[in-house]
């Protein structure tokens, strides 16, 4: 099953921190920067997820093609 | 070892946030010091009618650190140097800008005021001082606004960005 759980915690932590940064920036009236920070965080998380997915596909390839 | 690095990173970014918020906090204070320095200079010029070097020394004795050093060094310079007064003033003003947390605007006001110093009679000089004081008042308002807005923001953002980077690297 899922052996390496730490990536989940990492993504959850990034989400929490980004939510905090977003709220603080929004409170101080820097809406654009808040949006931008959220976007950057989203891209980072997407990168992590895509890395995991590429691992998965490689494994599938190695099961069926060889 | 890994955790030690993480803790160090968080501490470092917290310190950077503190430093930035400190700059925001100190700017209104330093501008106010400059204002009181100019007021003292006005009193020295109009009432005591002392020469600039003496006036600078009295001002340096009455004010706290960054501004006092500026006037102290200026009075020392005027004793020895043979160059133009404006050049001396500009040089020391740039040094002061590095010591205190002034922006370009304040330095520009200070330089403009320095170029007018010693060129006119009492009344004109008094007008120049009043003008510089009004400019500084505007900057002070600005600095206060920014202080309220950004000093807390910088502090919390420093901590949060540290935690964020640590999470990325774990």
From TrEMBL, chain A:
Keyword annotations from UniProtKB, A to Z:
Membrane, Transmembrane, Transmembrane helix
Query: Which source organism does the UniProt entry give?
Result: Oceanobacillus luteolus
Which branch of life, at top level?
Bacteria
Q: Which Pfam families match?
A: SpoIIIAC
Protein name per its UniProtKB record: Stage III sporulation protein AC
Q: Give me the segments passing through the membrane.
A: 6-25, 37-57
Automatic annotation (TrEMBL), chain B:
Q: What's the protein here called?
A: Stage III sporulation protein SpoIIIAB
Membrane-spanning residues where? 6-24, 153-169
Q: Which InterPro entries match?
A: Spore_III_AB
Coiled-coil annotated residue ranges, if any: 126-153
Q: What is the lineage of its organism?
A: Bacteria, Bacillati, Bacillota, Bacilli, Bacillales
The gene that this protein is the product of is: spoIIIAB
Keyword annotations for this protein, in alphabetical order, are: Coiled coil, Membrane, Transmembrane, Transmembrane helix
């Amino acid at each position: 099953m899922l052996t390496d759980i730490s990536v989940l915690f990492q993504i959850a932590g990034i989400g929490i921190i980004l939510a905090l940064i977003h709220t603080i920036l929004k409170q101080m009236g820097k809406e654009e920067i808040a949006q931008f920070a959220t976007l950057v965080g989203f891209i980072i998380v997407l990168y992590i997820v895509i890395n995991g997915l590429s691992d998965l596909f490689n494994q599938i390839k190695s099961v069926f093609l060889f | 070892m890994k955790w030690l690095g993480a803790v160090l990173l968080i501490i470092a970014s917290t310190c950077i946030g503190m430093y930035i918020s400190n700059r925001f906090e100190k700017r209104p204070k330093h501008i106010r010091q400059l204002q009181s320095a100019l007021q003292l200079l006005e009193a020295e010029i109009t009432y005591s009618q002392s020469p600039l070097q003496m006036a600078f020394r009295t001002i340096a004795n009455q004010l706290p650190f960054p501004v006092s050093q500026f006037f102290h060094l200026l009075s020392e310079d005027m004793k020895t140097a043979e160059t133009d007064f404006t050049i001396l003033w500009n040089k020391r003003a740039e040094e002061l800008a590095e010591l205190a947390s002034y922006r370009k605007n304040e330095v520009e006001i200070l330089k403009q005021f320095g170029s007018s110093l010693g060129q006119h009679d009492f009344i004109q000089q008094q007008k120049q001082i009043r003008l510089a004081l009004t400019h500084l008042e505007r900057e002070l308002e600005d600095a206060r606004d920014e202080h309220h807005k950004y000093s807390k923001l910088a502090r919390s953002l420093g901590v949060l960005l540290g935690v964020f980077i640590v999470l990325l690297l774990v």
